[in-house]
Amino acid sequence: MGTFKGLEYGIEQGNGKPIIFIHGWLGSKKFWKLITPYLDLDNPVIRYDQRCHGGSGCKPFTIRELAKDLNEMIEELELDNPILVGHSMGGMTALQYAAEYENFSGLVLLATSADTPDPENKSVEYFLEQYNELEKSEWAEEITENYVAESEKPEIREMTRRELQKADDRPIRNGLKAMIEYDVTEQLGDVEKPAAVVAAEKDGAITQDKSEQVAELLDCELKTLNTSHQMLPEKPEKVAGIIDSFVKSVS
Q1: Rounded Cα–Cα distance for residues 219 and 195 (Å)
Q2: How far is 119 from 208, CA to CA, in rounded Å?
Q3: Which of 14, 112, 152, 220 is the one with CA 20 to 30 A from 99?
Q4: pLDDT surpassing 60 at residue 120
């Protein structure tokens, strides 16, 4: 375990191109442990906590600042052309990085968007407003019902509700504001590196058309999994298989 400029990260040594796993809003590097048993790779792996999440320090951020954090960590660790794997807001960080920096060899983007997410029932702005007005437990319940209500696993809904309720105020507010301001749609046409985009068929947070837009902008294949937004705990073996195939294709 290491720390760089307040970012906490972990490295697993291996051979080949390094893979950086970037978690989403209110997640942490531990989130990726869900798919580790299913990965069939020997590459070096870096998992880190984005600013204001997990064990990392907290100060206000935009998605662009999260991408800058990522770039500085890549430079500090002297990583050459890593593969970036991002889920949700982590995918936004990866896309912002790809729009501004060149030191990477490919992208795996899970349930993410090229601009402000447009949830199926309620807007991101709405949930920020509701956070200011509702009790924390009511707010957590409303987000859970909108984002993962269609999950086939009750334990996924309960896990989501629990994580939302215990989340700190700072990443909640900062993350929602950052996603409201985020938009790289005009820049992605210049990105020429290979990518894999994965949509969640029952995603109430980042709807399937947002993933379709990312795939179109990056001119890459779109895969769809029959999951809610929480695709890692719902279909870890499927997600791991897609990552395996992509890494082998660019190695």
Answers
A1: 8
A2: 10
A3: 14
A4: no
Domain range summary for the chain, segments of one domain joined by +: 2-116+182-250
H helix or E strand, kind and range, residue 237? helix 236-250
Residue 218 makes CB contacts below 8 A (sequence gap 6+) with 107, 188, 191, 195, 197
- CATH-assigned architecture of domain 2-116+182-250: 3-Layer(aba) Sandwich (3.40)
Q: What mean pLDDT is predicted for residues 12-33?
A: 96
pTM of the model: 0.95
Strand ranges (E), the chain: 2-4, 7-12, 19-22, 45-48, 83-87, 106-110, 195-200, 222-225
> For 198-244, what is each residue's pLDDT tens digit?
999 998 889 899 999 999 999 999 999 999 999 999 999 999 999 99
Distance of CA 121 to the CA centre of its chain: 21
For residue 235, give the 3-state DSSP assignment. coil
Burial of residue 208 (CB within 10 Å: 0-12, 13-18, 19+) is middle
The mean pLDDT of 6-34, rounded to a whole number, is 96
Q: Are strands 83-87 and 106-110 parallel, antiparallel or unpaired?
A: parallel
Retrieve residue 85's tokens.
């794997």
> According to the model, what pLDDT value does residue 119 have?
59
Residue 34 one-letter amino acid: L
Q: What percent of the chain has pLDDT over 90?
A: 78
**Does an H or E element contain 134, and which?**
none
Task: Determine the Cα–Cα distance for residues 55 and 8; give it in Å rounded to an integer.
Answer: 6
